[in-house]
Design goal:
Layout (H helix, E strand, L loop, with lengths): L4 E6 L6 H12 L6 H13 L6 H12 L7 E5 L6 H10 L4 E6 L6 H17 L5 E4 L7 H15 L7 E7 L3 H5 L10 H17 L4 E6 L14 H10 L4 E5 L8 H4 L1 H13 L2 E4 L7 H16 L35
Parallel strand pairs: 1-2, 1-3, 3-4, 5-6, 5-7, 7-8
Helix pairs in contact: 1-2, 3-12, 4-5, 6-8, 6-12, 9-11
This protein binds coproporphyrin III and fe (ii) ion (FE2).
Fe (ii) ion (FE2) binds next to loops.
């Protein structure tokens, strides 16, 4: 199979104060997120002038990957400009007939994988004679992803010597969504199990035997249960246990976007300061040259059919064609609570 382009598919974020509310409406349309939560998240964005770092980070990552590929790279988002529908129309006009898709999420699950398939499907439906789109696999267990986080943990931990607790964090999702993650035959929970596995791989590479896996950025109505504990609550628990320093590794993300710079670098860091806890935060892979290499490797692996370089026993999943699920009923969207 040959491909004419790579589509870099991401979440999108606002680029000025007037973008914030319409962006949030796009993200939460039909998802039962209470308006009070939206007001709160709007304040987080406005705290940074209404600009999320995510689009600039994606553009920088694309600039780093382009020289490693012999394909043009296009950038499209789910929730904000450049919207993937528009990007796909441009690709079609440029003569692209078949493209690979790199989603900026390493994991399975509805929000982290299947929703990007829905984006592919929606974009193709919006473009007559749309190019064929083949999404690259999940990469949470790729050695380059793990190495990059392991080095980032080591440098964040430098001020503390060996005296720190390592805490991994990923975006929380509703328990029902996690239970539905992966093909039903696998028993669900593919998202939280992959997060646990990636954390184990990074911790073992760093040589840390004991660590925690916690969650962040919970949304949705309070009566709906989500993955817990929350990172900020967990700092209290660690403090009460006599922990002196914490190194937080945002294993669930590929770049320092708003969920990282607000929920970790602002909220969690402030709480740590109140408690007198030393606090370090490991960098995400986006700024590491190995991230560009990772993308180039995923492309090469797909094109050549070479065996997947991966460190876990999880099946290589998430490679989908035109947004069709990679296995029947894989990572079904959770049923949304009525509002
Ligand atoms: C698993 C997961 C990832 C990781 C996988 C991936 O990276 O794709 C992720 C990433 C991100 N989430 C982001 C932002 C938001 N997520 C929200 C809401 C939600 N996220 C969810 C899950 C995830 N989200 C869920 C289950 C919801 C509830 C509503 C729904 O069921 O969809 C909301 C609504 C307001 C609120 O927080 O309540 C916002 C603004 C940004 C961009 C940050 C920026 O602008 O820099 C990024 C990268
Ligand atoms: Fe999110």
């Amino acid at each position: 199979m040959s491909y004419d382009a790579l589509l870099w598919l991401s979440f999108g974020g606002p680029e000025g104060p007037d973008d914030v509310r319409p962006f949030l409406e796009n993200v939460t349309r039909g998802r039962g997120v209470p308006p009070e939560r939206l007001d709160e998240v709007e304040r987080h964005y406005l705290h940074f002038g209404g600009v999320s770092p995510i689009n600039a980070l994606n553009r920088a990552a694309i600039a780093a990957v382009e020289p490693l590929l012999d394909l043009p790279v296009y950038f499209g988002n789910r929730n904000w400009h450049p919207l993937v529908e528009r990007t796909l129309a441009e690709m079609k006009d440029a003569g692209v007939r078949r493209a690979l898709v790199f989603p900026t999420s390493a994991y399975g699950g509805y929000s982290a994988c299947r929703q990007y398939d829905e984006d592919v499907e929606r974009a193709r439906a919006a473009v007559p004679d749309a190019p064929e789109l083949v999404k690259l696999r999940q990469f949470f267990d790729h050695p380059l992803f793990v190495d990059s986080f392991a080095d980032a943990v080591r440098s964040a931990a430098t001020p503390f010597g060996d005296d720190y607790r390592l805490v991994f964090t990923a975006h929380s999702v509703p328990l029902s969504a996690d239970a539905a993650a992966g093909p039903p035959a696998e028993g669900g929970h593919r998202y939280s199990r992959q997060v646990a596995e990636a954390s184990r791989l990074v911790a073992s590479q760093v040589g840390v035997a004991e660590y925690d896996v916690v969650w962040q950025s919970r949304s949705g109505p309070p009566q709906v249960p989500w993955l817990e504990p929350d990172i900020v609550d967990h700092l209290d628990v660690l403090h009460a246990k006599g922990v002196a320093n914490v190194v937080v590794c945002p294993i669930g993300f590929v770049s320092d976007h708003l969920e990282v710079v607000w929920d970790l670098d602002t909220e969690a860091r402030d709480r740590a300061a109140e408690l007198g806890l030393g606090f370090g935060r490991a960098a995400t892979p986006n700024g590491d040259p190995r991230f560009a290499q990772l993308v180039a490797e995923l492309v090469a692996e797909h094109v050549s059919g070479a065996p997947a370089r991966k460190l876990s026993d999880f099946p290589a999943a998430g490679c989908t064609v035109n947004g069709a699920p990679c296995a029947p009923l894989c990572c079904e969207p959770a049923r949304r609570p009525a509002r």
